[in-house]
Amino acid sequence: MGNRNRNTAILLIAAGLFILIEHYINFFTIAALLFIALGVYKIRSSPDKTGYVLLGVGVVLLFSGHFTFILSVVLISLGLFYMKSKQAHRDDSYTQKQTILESFKRDKEPWELKNTSMWNVVGEIYMDLSLVMLDQKETTIVLQGVFGDVDIIVPEFLGVSVNASALVGQINAGNEKETGLVNKVNWQSPNYETSDQKVKLIVSYVVGDIDIKMV
């Protein structure tokens, strides 16, 4: 499984890069990305709907006449996902899932958390880790994709390590915050090293709003 995933990852990344080179990024693509970045910023900083309008304009610009750009981003993202999943999990005993649209919510009743890798083009993820049932000392979760809205609630008794990145958007993890372009946050809960149960979160989106809160 490891060699197959690695070869698939290399093929997807190469295909995505080839499409980008063949159909170079033009002014309208850059304008669309700027609209998306400004929209994400407005959504986080202002209560009005201006941010959603800007974000919508940016997405429409990208999809109308820029299908090859979107396709290349999706292929590269999926290829990187395969590579990161293999690196993050020590063996093949983990769940791997790829979807176009994903709405994953676990916030109302106890649920079981195992080693998992999830990739989606558009994803809405809400996890309340205060309700999880863990069957091992350390659990690794990989969340990756193109557009993502991720909210994770972390209880104080759980040791958590966060490696989060978003090319465009915002990341909040513990007392760390990054907003704008090329965001990256590495953070550990104070009790991570001494905790009996640990969760390692690896979250990466091209455009993302990532919020990880301690309660």
From TrEMBL:
The keyword Transmembrane applies. Residues 105-212 form the Cell wall-active antibiotics response LiaF-like C-terminal domain. The chain crosses the membrane at residues 12-41, 53-82. Pfam families: LiaF-like_C. The keyword Nucleotidyltransferase does not apply. InterPro entries: LiaF-like_C, LiaF_C. Keywords: Membrane, Transmembrane, Transmembrane helix. It comes from the Bacteria. This is Cell wall-active antibiotics response LiaF-like C-terminal domain-containing protein. It comes from Paenibacillus hemerocallicola.
